[in-house]
Amino acid sequence: EKGTYNHFMLKEIDEQPFVIRNIIQKYQNENGDIKLEPEIRSAIREADRLYIIAAGTSYHAGLVAKELMEKEAKIPTEVHIASEFLYNEPLLSKKPLFIFISQSGETADCRGVLVNVKKHGFPSLTITNVPGSTLSREADFTLHTYAGPEIAVASTKAYTAQMAVLSILAMDSARAKGIDARFNAMQELGLIANAMEALCDQKDKMEQIARDYMYDTRNCFFIGRALDYHVVLEGALKLKEISYIQAEGFAGGELKHGTIALIEEGTPVVAVVTQPHVNGNIRGNVQEVIARGANACIISTEATEEKGDHIVLPEVHECLTPLVSIIPLQLIAYYAALHRDCDVDKPRNLAKSVTVE
Ligand code: M6R
Question: Is the ipTM of this complex over 0.90?
């Protein structure tokens, strides 16, 4: 039930800190160690490469998961859009492990891949919010994201829950190989939950940005680099699916290869800036779009004097910033859709779970 909320989407955005705290509890044993089925640990240990298969928002969580698996656990990882993989299979490694990420566990494109994977006899793991779902029943192993029912078509808490579970999995996989991950997932997730709360308390600011930047625009661009690039893809998907604004996420360095031609006086550009090693580069990109007339909104870990609106994120570990930087993007998308009189929870032409190919 919606309770005091007008829309499930806003309720689900607000639930994210609780979901993250719940995940910490569910994946921890009495000694504070990570709780994971030993069979899942061995499946990961035995794999020479992980193939993450997903669609939409879950695919975006997969992009972040790849970074964590490769950078922390040193396991080669590929991420594929399910509907593409289904009809255009890449060259596979000798001992692949397939990981399906799906809120509903019912996405037909993912199921199509799983059926083929099983025919080949490859092992599979489903990460889902619905443990009894088709993908969960048919895969060898399941990890539950414990986000509670997600009703709004636009996925919010399921996305952050997926990334939280995958960060735990990455840290555990690193430990199993004797590698020290750069972060303690459980501790960091605790800080992330607090950071999410602090951002959810700034709804007035997000609403003002949505009104100023998106009320009557035809398009909106999101830019980021490295991990932030994956987040801007998700931010753009959120905005387009519920507000019908043409929204696209771009890698900052790609602007000059074409996209910057689209920037004109008043074009809204939202930049996410959380990755220290590319901080200067993306800030340079922001200057480039501002010089061509863009209205820039900068979501970053450090307050700066640049022109434009700023949202400053509470500090969390640089490997896990997507769990926090997505909150303003979700809220901005929500208020943009609201002000444009769109059906926030049930956008046109979309279904919550896509059970047809
Ligand atoms: O249930 P799934 O995670 O498999 O769904 C995948 C996509 O259909 C889904 O994430 C979709 O992109 C959302 N509506 C995005 O908000």
Answer: yes
